[in-house]
Amino acid sequence: MPPSQEVDVLIVGGGINGAGIARDLAGRGWSVCLVEQDDLASHTSSASTKLIHGGLRYLEHRAFRLVRKALAEREVLLRSAPHIMWPLQFVLPHDPGMRPAWLIRLGLFLYDHLARRDVLPASRSVDLRRSPLGAPLQPRLQQGFVYADGWVDDARLVVLNALDAQAHGAAIRTRTRCTEARREARHWVATLEEADGRPSTVRARALVNAAGPWAERLLRQVAQPAGVAPLATRHLRLVKGSHIVVPRCFEHDAAYLFQNPDGRVLFAIPYEGAFTLIGTTDQEIHGDPRDACADDTEVAYLCEQASRYFAMPVTPADVVWRYCGVRPLLDDAHGNPAAVTRDYRLETDDLAAPLLTVWGGKITTFRQLAEDAGNALGHMLHESRPAWTRGACLPGGDLSAWIDVSGHPARDFARFLQAVQDRHPWLPPALAHRLARAYGSRIERVLCGARNLDALGEPCAPGLYEAELSYLRDEEWARTADDVLWRRSKLGLHLTEAQRADVASWFARPALLGHTEAWKT
Questions:
Q1: How confident is the model over 231-245, as a mean pLDDT?
Q2: Is the CB of residue 437 less than 8 Å from the CB of residue 84?
Q3: How many CA atoms lie within 13 A of 59 on its CB side?
Q4: Mean pLDDT of 375-396
Q5: Taking the model in full, what pTM does it have?
Q6: Where are the beta strands (DSSP E) in 64-175?
Q7: Interacting residues of 353 by C-beta distance below 8 A, sequence separation 6+
Q8: pLDDT score for 30
Q9: CA distances from 146 to 125, 201, 460 (A)
Q10: Eight-state DSSP code of residue 474
Q11: What pLDDT is recorded for position 142?
Q12: Could you check whether the bond before residue 315 is cis, i.e. omega within 30 degrees of 0?
């Protein structure tokens, strides 16, 4: 990377919104540089509940516009990447002491009809006494409802957007901080700092602030010279959502939505085969989002609420992993953090060089947010260019070279997996499934023409070979064991501490220390 670079748009923030906007803009033909101070999806975008959903509970807050927008996006996203997103059934047990059954039916009716559905089935009632879906639950829960939403590997979704942005010419610069952004008459001049302290500059016609929990701070401390009124006009409420992972609580592949006495809801979701993911909380925080963690009080709360429904209690001793994400929500004067809007707002400022700031948002609406951002920037740059992502696949999502695509994500992935196993019968089934899920039709880039396991190199950990680590380093910006074990995959859950250390040792090899990015502009 040269010490200076000129682009149309500089994007600060490598979470889902920043990566999605980079993809959208680059695909429209603008030159783009995205900078992220850490790894891609290293904060909120890898710490979600991992759902593509309309948000059933938001109907109670009358957020019909948000729910409708999110529901409309579900199937668009499911079709774009059937390897990392798939339909998921949710069981909502009816607790007579909570919301009345008629209110739940009304909410589900709206959920079914606020937006068109082609893939996901309509909701239905279920007798929990006679259904396997009721087996893990307490006997007092006799009636329930089943509805459908989607599941997503959130961190991989970010990476796939960054890959597509790069394929369209964008420069993706991870572990690069924007330390100053100076606004001139027609350009922004940004000072950047690499992980090793090396400085560089980027000159951009427009600046996009997609810094998530740091968006307000960026406007107040980075993109504003001293002595001048801050650019920030809004305030964020930083709300922590914590999750726990415990050994598998049930054998079937559906998830649960539980109602809590405090008015919140709790998800219990099949996770990584051997586990159940339980979350989330809503706890407002102050200070640096980096310091947020899932504390013992939240863990106890999640265990207590899950135990109100499961026949087998969930205890803090069962927790094998905990994590939290900090949601950057717009301050709309609601006292209850759970009631604060999850919708996004795009604030534009084109008094001189254009500035676009992303406030709020949720993972389900990232593509629509990016499209809206592209339209807004085109207007400010006086170069409106057509949107393109609605019918486009993300990298690995186009399975047409492997199968005749039916348009039903779950069926198409099952047929794709079979095609992978037929073409590579030497792959152990579990490894074939994991690689197919992670990389989709890009799987051959990982296998590199291998015809047996030995050709994948040494196993650095069970099921993790050198060929995959090299691919992740060379093509997906992975630089540490954590990048691989907790973001590009969740293999960290399945490995011992010693095995995780072996992966860290692979990245620490002297031959890898001089590896640098081949920046694309």
A1: 84
A2: yes
A3: 19
A4: 97
A5: 0.94
A6: 85-93, 124-127, 143-152, 171-173
A7: 183, 184, 185, 186, 187, 188, 204, 205, 206, 207
A8: 98
A9: 6, 53, 42
A10: H
A11: 95
A12: no
Decide if pLDDT at 220 tops 70: yes
Whether the per-residue pLDDT at 367 is higher than 80: the answer is yes
Q: DSSP H helical segments within 394-465, as ranges?
A: 409-423, 429-439, 443-447
Instruction: Single out the residue of 321, 410, 406, 407 nearest to residue 89, CA to CA.
Output: 410
Q: Which of 178, 67, 167 is nearest to 113 (CA)?
A: 67
- 33-57: average pLDDT: 95
The CA distance from 117 to 242, in Å, is: 31
Q: Which residues contact 361 (CB under 8 A, 6 or more apart)?
A: 17, 328, 342, 343, 344, 369
Q: How far apart are CA 377 and CA 9, in angstroms?
A: 9
Residues 413-462: tens digit of each pLDDT = 999 999 999 999 999 999 999 999 999 999 999 999 999 999 999 999 99
Output the pLDDT for position 230.
54
The answer for residues whose C-beta is within 8 angstroms of residue 191's C-beta and 6 or more apart is: 178, 179, 180, 181, 182, 199, 200, 201
Cα(497)–Cα(461) distance, rounded to whole angstroms? 11
Structural tokens at position 290: 């980096």
DSSP secondary structure, 287-324, as one string:
S-GGG----HHHHHHHHHHHHTTBSS---GGG-SEEEE
Beta bridge partners of 284: 239
Which tokens go with 133?
């879906």
| 122 DSSP assignment | P
Separation of alpha carbons 416 and 376, rounded Å: 38
Give the C-alpha distances (Å, rounded to integers) separating 318 from 88, 241, 244, 302, 427. Answer: 25, 19, 9, 12, 33
For 88, other C-beta atoms within 10 Å of its C-beta total 21
**Structure tokens given for 340:** 């604060």
Q: Which residue has the higher pLDDT, 159 or 335?
A: 159
The span from the CA of 446 to the CA of 449, in Å, is 9
Q: Is the pLDDT of residue 153 over 70?
A: yes
Helix (H) or strand (E) holding 219: none
H/E stretch holding 329 reads strand 321-330
Q: Which amino acid is at 224?
A: Q
Contacts of 437 (CB under 8 A, 6+ apart): 83, 84, 153, 413
| Inter-axis angle of helices 429-439 and 409-423, nearest 10 | 130
The answer on pLDDT for 340 being more than 70 is no
The DSSP annotation for 427-441 comes to S-HHHHHHHHHHHGG
Span 116-121, average pLDDT: 90
Tokens 């504390």, located at residue = 295
Cα 479 from Cα 176, distance rounded (Å)? 13
